[in-house]
Amino acid sequence: MFAPSILITDDDFDFRETLRGVFEPRGFRAILAGDGEEAIRVVLTQEVHLVLMDMHMPKLTGLDAIRKVKRFRAELPCILLSAALDESIVREAERVHAFSVLPKPVTRQQITNVVDDALRRVYNWRNERSGLKDE
């Protein structure tokens, strides 16, 4: 059985832990990073199937980090989250091939639906814990 690894990148410790609490009970392995540079190191050294990336962080913005990640893992689905979402961020996210952009605050259903959709499209994965079966 495929147990995907999700890299949760946000400079807000509580938000990272909240997302860990959303995904680990659903069968995911959560890897946490506090900034974009740490996220890039994780993607280079660990098996990661999906990245959740905050936009506004120290050292690198989420967009900058996604841009760098895509240079060596072009197929890796990256979901950008932003509390200050505007059209320029959405357009740039499209340019760097982010899978999706979600506004913060985000609901549990919004984020789990987008993650499930990304994993289904990229890996043909079905989450048995959400009522879906492997095909």
So how many helices? 5
Q: Give me the Rg, rounded.
A: 14 Å
Overall tally of domains: 1
Residue-averaged pLDDT, rounded?
92
Description:
- The protein is of the alpha/beta class and 135 residues long.
- It has a single domain (5-130), classed as Rossmann fold (3-Layer(aba) Sandwich).
- It has 5 helices and 5 strands, in the order βαβαβαβαβα.
- It has helices at residues 13-23, 36-45, 62-72, 87-95, 108-123; strands at 5-9, 29-33, 50-54, 78-82, 100-103.
- Strands 2-1-3-4-5 form a 5-stranded parallel β-sheet, with helices on both faces.
- β3, α3 and β4 (78-82) form a beta-alpha-beta unit.
Question: Topology, please?
Answer:
Blueprint: E1 5-9, H1 13-23, E2 29-33, H2 36-45, E3 50-54, H3 62-72, E4 78-82, H4 87-95, E5 100-103, H5 108-123
Parallel strand pairs: 1-2, 1-3, 3-4, 4-5
Using brief descriptors, characterize the structure shown:
single chain, about 140 residues, Rossmann fold, 5-stranded parallel beta sheet, about 20% strand, disordered C terminus
State the gist of this model.
The protein has 135 residues and is an alpha/beta fold. Helix content is 42%, strand content 18%.
